[in-house]
Amino acid sequence: MAENPMLKFVSTPRDMPEKREATVRREDFHEIYAEYADQKAKEQSSRCSQCGVPYCQTHCPLHNNIPDWLKLTAEGRLREAYEISQATNAFPEICGRICPQDRLCEGNCVIEASGHGTVTIGSVEKYITDTAWEQGWVKPIVPHAERPESVGIIGGGPGGLAAADRLRRAGVQVTIYDRYDRAGGLLTYGIPGFKLEKDVVMRRNDQLEKGGVEFVLNCNVGVDITFDELQAKHNAILIATGVYKSRELDAPGIRAEGIVRAIDYLTASNRKSFGDEVPEFDAGLLDAENKRVVVIGGGDTAMDCVRTAIRQGAESVKCLYRRDKANMPGSQREVQNAEEEGVEFVWLSAPKGFTGEEVDGVMVQKMRLGAPDATGRRVPELIEGSDYVEGADLVIKALGFEPEDLPTLWGVDGLEVTRWGTVRADFKTHATNVPGVYAAGDIVRGASLVVWAIRDGREAADAILDYIGQAAKVAAE
Q: Which residues touch 166 (CB under 8 Å, ≥6 apart)?
């Protein structure tokens, strides 16, 4: 990939006298960029037709008041725009960066439907909240009154963080228990920094901590603390663990060195961006530099992997997917980005096995699409005699995620799960069959979007407030 000279002067250290001219240019660049961003945000916002039926809003899982904050942005009333955006979404700057707007708000914009190109809602949402942070409009949470009840949240991903935000604003005492050393879940360790800068996530964690949320990190429920102990400590529990168990392949050679899980690969890359020591990356096992990389899968995680490999300097990057481009589950915008960056997609292809003790190839079998299944998607079928070997030095399995067996891991036999292993919870209240225990996000839905986890977390928080409020009322009688 061609080197971008702009990146060099933008990152020039200020303490180098010989680079003073470049430093001035950098400051000029940021000032010019800020003016440009403001101009483009107003321009795009003014394109909103303020239609009678705001399909952008109805197709947003959070039902964000998009037309209202677009109108305010077009008028230059950014603080009011931010306040409206924040009212329905705990983390608008995160959704503005990573939501698949092409499948949600932007994809249902009436201007897009009329053939004139969508309003770039996600970019405006990101700009509004980034401006709010820069201007100091985003403040730590200060409840009107503190409440004595406490809620324990297992999992510091988007669902857990959104619930914590809502509960703290109501004055509830909140503790988040997370198995990792930084909260954020996949926002922190799963999504690459070029899509979601890590300081954006960390400042939200910091805001919650300053607002009174307690974080207990490096805490593995079932090992470091029991579920029974959490129930005894808190008035209610919210399970928001997400789904981290990787789907696996059963194929000859699958245990060869150089075949890795997507979550391990992405976590290593993100840890390096924090400056952490990552022995498997430093030894080359989780580093794509100068390697022929093959990613297996067609979802957004696969797109994160191929685009990360490009940035690490891979010799080549190919993505194997058993269906065609039209049937990929991931965002078409992400596919387009990957293609523009040099990723080669090998459609209608599936792995049959792997060669080499240290992987040096993927045995590929070609597919064709047959009749639709019960979901309406055409089923891939093998084409006999079409096998070949694709050379590879690093194979990344991005086949999706499944829930861990929480009742067994936590020793909670009474917690009901579905046949897919997800926690069974009420669709509206998110209550499980265990009194005072709620569940939200991917651990209920299965692997889904961040915006759905945020919605679930907020809804679960409201239900928990009702539950502890009723309990307090009964206790007072």
A: 90, 457, 458, 461, 462
